[in-house]
Amino acid sequence: MRQTTMAKPADVTRTWYVVDGNGQTLGRLASTCAHVLKGKHKPTYTPNVDCGDYVIVINADKVEMTGNKLNTEKYYNHSGYFGGMRVRTAKEMKEKYPVEWVERAIKGMLPHTKLGDVQRGHVFVYAGSEHPHAAQKPVELKVRG
């Protein structure tokens, strides 16, 4: 008889991955990052334990969207006050806020729970090609597509 192994938080070993967003599609990049952040690429994946790895996304300003989504996709924020609705298009987000644009896409694919809050803290997004995490010796992660 085989036994299902459940990962313990103390037994998790974490790896650092770096993803180059140059020419990548936003959704495919975000789903690959979320897959690694959750730890689903590991054989010891346990849904209720943070067994994911760290992800560094570089060149966030060079991430693409297919079709006419840059003009039609909208991002909403509300301050909580009357008339406090702010609407931005994907084109505006890409030009002015590329880091937030990619972070929002990854956040939407992670669980919206306390565990998801911890996993969201393991992603680092940078607009340029430089990042300050060289000491962690990140491994390159390929995104299909």
UniProtKB/TrEMBL annotation:
It comes from the Bacteria. The keyword Ribosomal protein applies. GO terms for biological process: negative regulation of translation; translation. GO terms for cellular component: cytosolic large ribosomal subunit. CDD domains: Ribosomal_L13. Pfam families: Ribosomal_L13. Belongs to the universal ribosomal protein uL13 family. Part of the 50S ribosomal subunit. This is Large ribosomal subunit protein uL13. It comes from Holdemanella porci.
